[in-house]
Every structure is written in structure tokens, then in C-alpha cells.
Amino acid sequence: MHGLVIKNTGSWYTVKTDDGRIVESKVKGTFRLKGIRSTSPVVVGDRVHLVINTEGTAFISDIEDRRNYIIRKSSNLSKQSHIIAANIDQALLVVTINYPHTSTVFIDRFLASAEAYRIPVVLVFNKTDLLNTDEMRYQQMLITLYQTIGYHCVAVSAETGAGMQTLQALLVGKVSLLSGNSGVGKSTLINRLLPDAHLRTAEISDAHNAGTHTTTFSEMLQLPEGGYVIDTPGIKGFGTFDIEKEELGSYFKEIFEFSKDCRFNNCTHTHEPGCAVLRAVENHYISESRYLSYLNMLEDKDERKYREAY
Ligand SMILES: Nc1nc2c(ncn2[C@@H]2O[C@H](COP(=O)(O)OP(=O)(O)O)[C@@H](O)[C@H]2O)c(=O)[nH]1
Ligand SMILES: [Mg+2]
Ligand SMILES: [Zn+2]
User: Fold this and answer.
1) Which of 42, 113, 183, 204 has its CA 20 to 30 A from that of 291?
2) 123 lies in the same domain as 225
3) Which pLDDT tens digit goes with each residue over 207-221?
4) Would the CB of 157 count as within 6 Å of ligand 1?
């Protein structure tokens, strides 16, 4: 029997089997996962093999290779990190032009880390109902910019429901990680996508009666039209990625494209003669805000300070 882990409440895992059943499962005590050093060996999004017991529960007997995953560092000091979710099809980065303002540096750092983890991003511009004419114009400019680079963009209002059908269509049949600064409307979006989200969460926590907050565990929320949304409070990105200065440019799609014409292949696109990226910035083929974000991330590397992914 094969299935998908959709929830983790400590030692129990909720698995949706390929024939559509929900089975509460455990990892067998003796079972060790090859090459995985993590506080929790199985995570939401994992594809697993099950051995069903007579009581209707199951043991997880194997885990399939992960396409990708997101990690959380245990603390800033410790190097230990654990995997939170695996096999993510896309990340939804919820941003707001205002109330609160989301900076392009924040957006670009997120996009670069998503590139490093090879996870496509959909930019969800929320709270469009609050924007005045100038803010609307600015939002449209950003949408044009990011679409030109190659990112899906959708403008919505979780409050009025505007644009929500377009967003829903992008989620069908996929596992989407919900990300974004606090206050941008992630919970409001979830409630609109899943009108019974609160009810369901309460039910499941009762069933396990663990006395713990379900929110501390990852869960994939099942969308009515098919597909899942992962809402993991406190997880904004994919964890750190460690790269050389010369590599950073490859995580900015358009910088990467232009860098192929740089004279030196270890060009950092800051001062080098024959730099095609600098020329593209001067000629406005690369936007100044994107280039500034690139420099901002490059600076982190210079200072060698501890660095979150964005
Ligand atoms: N006007 C307006 N308010 C919104 C919208 N989406 C969310 N909000 C409000 O913004 C605040 C923060 O939303 P919340 O969903 O808690 O944000 P989260 O921190 O990202 O989960 C709440 O007061 C919401 O009612 C929207 O599209 N328009
Ligand atoms: Mg929230
Ligand atoms: Zn260059």
C-alpha cells in the first residue's frame, strides 16, 4: 500500500492512501531511514509505503526519495536543522503593496532561495481592495516585472474574493507551500480556500487528544478541487542555502541569462570589465530593484554573518 503523508502529530502520521483512505500510521521502532538524519524521519509530503495492521492503523515501512524539501534550523546557534515538508510543487509567496508593505528585497531573497531549492514560486498580491491609484500602478509595475522574469503573478483580495478563482486554478492538483510576512493575509486566504479549515483542525486535534497545539505540526490542507496547501506558521522560506559569491547570480533568473555573456566566468557582476550584467542594468534590461536585491544578498556573503535564506 502506498500513500502520501498529509499530517504529522508527533509520533503519529496521517497518510492518505492512493485508493483514498485516511490511515493513522507510525514509524516502526526498528525502522531506520537510510541517510536521513532528522528529528522526525518522515514529514508531510513524503510518499511512503504502508503495512496495514488488523486494527486499521499502519506501519510506515519505506519512504520514497524526496524531490525537494524545506528545512528549519533548530536555533540560530546550532547547525542542526530539520526537514518540515517534502515534495513541494510550488510556493505561494503572499505579498502586499501596503498594509503591510512588502519590500522587493524581501521578495527577491525569497525567489532566490526558491531557485536554490528548485521550487517554482507564484507571487500572490493580496489586499488589492485597499490600494489607491498610485499603489495599483506600482503593483502593476511589479507584476509586469516578475512576469517578464518568468514568475506567475496573481492579484487577489482575500477580503472581497476578487481574483480568487484565478488563484484556485493555480492550486488544483498541486502541493503548494504558503509563505509570506506576517499580516499579509495568509490565514484569511486559507479560510477562503477552505471554508471548513478551522473545524477540521479542531476535529483532528481532539482525535489525538495529545493536548498539543496542532499548529506546531505541519499539515497539508486538502483543497476541495484537489491539491493541498501547506500552512506552517513561522516558516517563511526554505532554510539556508550556502553558495559561493560567483554562484549567487544564477539564482536570479534574468541575471543568470545575461551572465552568460560576461567576459569572466567567475564574474560577480559588481566591478568586472566586460560584465554583461552591469551593461544590462545600465540599459534597463535588468531592473534596478532586482540588481539591488542581488547586491544586498552579496553583501551578506561579504560580512559572512549568519544568514537566513532571505
Ligand atoms: N482589506 C483587506 N484585509 C485583509 C485582506 N486579507 C487579509 N486581511 C486582513 O489582514 C489582517 C491580517 O490577515 P491574516 O490572514 O491574519 O494574515 P497572516 O498573518 O498572513 O495570516 C487581518 O485583519 C485580515 O482581516 C484583504 O484582501 N483585504
Ligand atoms: Mg496567520
Ligand atoms: Zn558579470
Assistant:
1) 183
2) yes
3) 444 433 434 567 899
4) yes
DSSP-derived letter for residue 206 is H
Q: Write the CATH number for 251.
A: 1.10.40.50
**CA distances for 277 relative to 21, 295, 298, angstroms:** 53, 12, 15
Query: What's the Cα-to-Cα distance from 226 to each of 114, 163, 211, rounded to whole Å?
Result: 24, 19, 30
Parent domain of 53: 2-65
Could you read off the pLDDT of 153-174 as tens digits, one per residue? 999 999 999 999 999 999 999 9
Residue type (1 letter), 220: M
Chain-centroid distance of CA 301 in Å reads 23
Instruction: State the chain's mean pLDDT as an integer.
Output: 86
Half-sphere exposure of 120 (CA within 13 A, CB side): 14
Domain-located, residue 305: no
Decide whether any atom of ligand 1 lies within 6 Å of the 98 Cβ: no
105 with 225, same domain? yes
Domain-terminating residue out of 65, 95, 115: 65
Alpha-carbon Rg for the chain, nearest whole angstrom, is 21
Which CATH number is 129's domain given? 3.40.50.300
pTM score of the predicted model: 0.87
Is 186 labelled a binding residue? yes
Q: Report how far residue 111's alpha carbon sits from residue 242's, in angstroms, rounded to the nearest whole number.
A: 15
- Among 156, 188, 194, the mutation site with the greatest number of ligand 1 atoms within 8 A of its Cβ is 188
